[in-house]
Amino acid sequence: MPGLGEVVRGLVAREGVEAVLVLSADGLPIEHAAHQTFEAEPLAALTATLAQYATRLGCGAGRGALRTAVLDYDRGLLVVAQLGSGDCLAILAQPDANIGELLYDLRQHRPALAALL
């Protein structure tokens, strides 16, 4: 079974993916890879906060905890997936990226990704 670093590098190698970040529940980067330099620490902190509020929103709306969110911004996509125990995976993708297969793979392999943490 590949290690966490290999999985992250494999994800960033997908077409349309620019950066991948695995972060702890308290907003600290665990592992990351990108095509260009990016600031992992601020993105990790903000993503953890977003995941916490999204879970609160889901619970308040009767939908439960956050599993996966796709945010569509002017300059690209941000996919946030809970991996268990509050740890998250954040993926930055190009605006025109086809993320359907990526979302399917995240859903299918979430337990295996969580086991790597």
Question: How would you characterize the overall build of this protein?
Answer:
With 117 residues, the protein is an alpha+beta fold. The chain has one domain (4-115): Beta-Lactamase (2-Layer Sandwich). It has 3 helices and 5 strands, in the order H-E-E-H-E-E-E-H. The chain has helices spanning 4-12, 40-60, 100-115, and strands at 17-23, 29-34, 68-73, 76-84, 87-93. Strands 2-1-5-4-3 form a 5-stranded antiparallel β-sheet, sandwiched between helices. The longest helix has 21 residues, at 40-60. The chain is globular. The model has no long low-confidence stretch (mean pLDDT 94).
Q: CATH architecture, please? A: 2-Layer Sandwich
Report the mean per-residue pLDDT as an integer: 94
Low-confidence segments, given as residue ranges, are none
| Number of structurally distinct domains | 1
Structural class determined from secondary elements: alpha+beta
DSSP helix fraction: 25-40%
Distance between the termini: 13 Å
CATH class: Alpha Beta
Q: What is the assigned CATH homologous superfamily?
A: Dynein light chain 2a, cytoplasmic
**Biggest β-sheet strands, sense, barrel:** 5 strands, antiparallel
DSSP summary: helix tally? 3
> What is CATH's topology name?
Beta-Lactamase
The overall strand count is 5
- Order of SSEs, N→C? HEEHEEEH
- Shape descriptor: globular
Main features:
117 residues, Beta-Lactamase, five-stranded antiparallel sheet, alpha+beta, globular, 5 strands, single chain
Short description:
With 117 residues, the protein is α+β, with helices and mostly antiparallel strands.
